[in-house]
């Protein structure tokens, strides 16, 4: 009678003894298991967020709706407020919503599914900041972007929803009262870190990566509004709803 040799555990056969089973288990534990590196996943998520943020909806919506390029009239800023100077409230509202969405969606998606790849607060901070930088310096539009107010609000809404709502409420309250979009943006930006410290605990107990990214966004927002601040101090800033003559008379353009 021929003896039957026990199955080779390396080749995946069924072991015939407890000792062989232990040997197979040990070999399987030693085999390298590919895992997603959190840093790689965070870098990919941030890159995708930047590309999404680079979609200049002020320009795209204006093209689709047959309006002049917002970079050719008014303040020259590709944002919802300048699109409003074209006289189309629908285009301005759509631009506002889409600019906010492109800030909110990447952070929300990373928070929703990123835990599978080890994404934590640091990654979420980078993703939000990348989406914001995409709006300021869009790769699809020769790095000529807007000021990032709506996108920043969307990012904050995804980071800390009550904070995002506070920022939006602050902007709306100032804008409706004083009719200056730039002043509303400046006040809302300054209110963001104060509101974060109040809503999410004291600064030294808050999520520091989120706090650091927020301070960076606020600094960039103030920098982008430097010209507006000078015009506000000089009493020369345009109010919300003032229609641009260039937008009224110019056909749709695509600057080269």
TrEMBL record:
<dbReference type="InterPro" id="IPR003811">
    <property type="entry name" value="G3P_acylTferase_PlsY"/>
</dbReference>
<dbReference type="GO" id="GO:0008654">
    <property type="term" value="P:phospholipid biosynthetic process"/>
</dbReference>
<dbReference type="GO" id="GO:0005886">
    <property type="term" value="C:plasma membrane"/>
</dbReference>
<keyword id="KW-0472">Membrane</keyword>
<feature type="transmembrane region" description="Helical">
    <location>
        <begin position="204"/>
        <end position="223"/>
    </location>
</feature>
<keyword id="KW-0443">Lipid metabolism</keyword>
<feature type="transmembrane region" description="Helical">
    <location>
        <begin position="39"/>
        <end position="61"/>
    </location>
</feature>
<dbReference type="Pfam" id="PF02660">
    <property type="entry name" value="G3P_acyltransf"/>
</dbReference>
<comment type="subunit">
    <text>Probably interacts with PlsX.</text>
</comment>
<dbReference type="GO" id="GO:0043772">
    <property type="term" value="F:acyl-phosphate glycerol-3-phosphate acyltransferase activity"/>
</dbReference>
<feature type="transmembrane region" description="Helical">
    <location>
        <begin position="180"/>
        <end position="198"/>
    </location>
</feature>
<protein>
    <recommendedName>
        <fullName>Glycerol-3-phosphate acyltransferase</fullName>
        <ecNumber>2.3.1.275</ecNumber>
    </recommendedName>
</protein>
<keyword id="KW-0808">Transferase</keyword>
<keyword id="KW-0444">Lipid biosynthesis</keyword>
<comment type="similarity">
    <text>Belongs to the PlsY family.</text>
</comment>
<feature type="transmembrane region" description="Helical">
    <location>
        <begin position="149"/>
        <end position="173"/>
    </location>
</feature>
<comment type="pathway">
    <text>Lipid metabolism; phospholipid metabolism.</text>
</comment>
<keyword id="KW-0594">Phospholipid biosynthesis</keyword>
<keyword id="KW-1003">Cell membrane</keyword>
<feature type="transmembrane region" description="Helical">
    <location>
        <begin position="122"/>
        <end position="143"/>
    </location>
</feature>
<keyword id="KW-1133">Transmembrane helix</keyword>
<keyword id="KW-0812">Transmembrane</keyword>
<keyword id="KW-0012">Acyltransferase</keyword>
<comment type="function">
    <text>Catalyzes the transfer of an acyl group from acyl-phosphate (acyl-PO(4)) to glycerol-3-phosphate (G3P) to form lysophosphatidic acid (LPA). This enzyme utilizes acyl-phosphate as fatty acyl donor, but not acyl-CoA or acyl-ACP.</text>
</comment>
<keyword id="KW-1208">Phospholipid metabolism</keyword>
């Amino acid at each position: 009678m021929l003896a039957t040799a026990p199955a080779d555990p390396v080749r995946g056969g069924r072991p015939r003894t407890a000792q062989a089973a232990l040997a197979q288990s040990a070999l399987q534990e030693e085999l390298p298991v590919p895992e997603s590196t959190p840093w790689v996943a965070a870098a990919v998520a941030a890159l995708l967020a930047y590309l999404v943020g680079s979609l200049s909806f002020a320009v795209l919506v204006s093209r689709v709706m047959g309006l002049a390029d917002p970079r050719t009239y008014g303040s020259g800023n590709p944002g919802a407020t300048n699109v409003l100077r074209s006289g189309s409230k629908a285009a301005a509202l759509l631009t506002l919503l889409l600019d906010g969405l492109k800030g909110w969606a990447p952070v929300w998606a990373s928070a929703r599914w990123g835990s599978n790849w080890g994404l934590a607060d640091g990654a979420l901070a980078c993703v939000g900041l990348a989406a914001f930088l995409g709006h300021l310096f869009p790769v699809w539009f020769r790095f000529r972007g807007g000021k990032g107010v709506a996108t920043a609000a969307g990012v904050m809404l995804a980071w800390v929803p009550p904070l995002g709502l506070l920022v939006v409420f602050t902007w709306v309250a100032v804008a409706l009262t004083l009719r200056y979009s730039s002043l509303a943006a400046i006040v809302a930006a300054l209110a963001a870190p104060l509101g974060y410290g109040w809503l999410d605990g004291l600064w030294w107990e808050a999520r520091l990566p989120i706090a650091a990214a927020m301070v960076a966004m606020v600094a960039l927002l103030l920098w982008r509004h430097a010209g507006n601040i000078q015009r506000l101090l000089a009493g020369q800033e345009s109010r919300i709803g003032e229609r641009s003559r260039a937008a009224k008379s110019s056909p749709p353009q695509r600057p080269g």
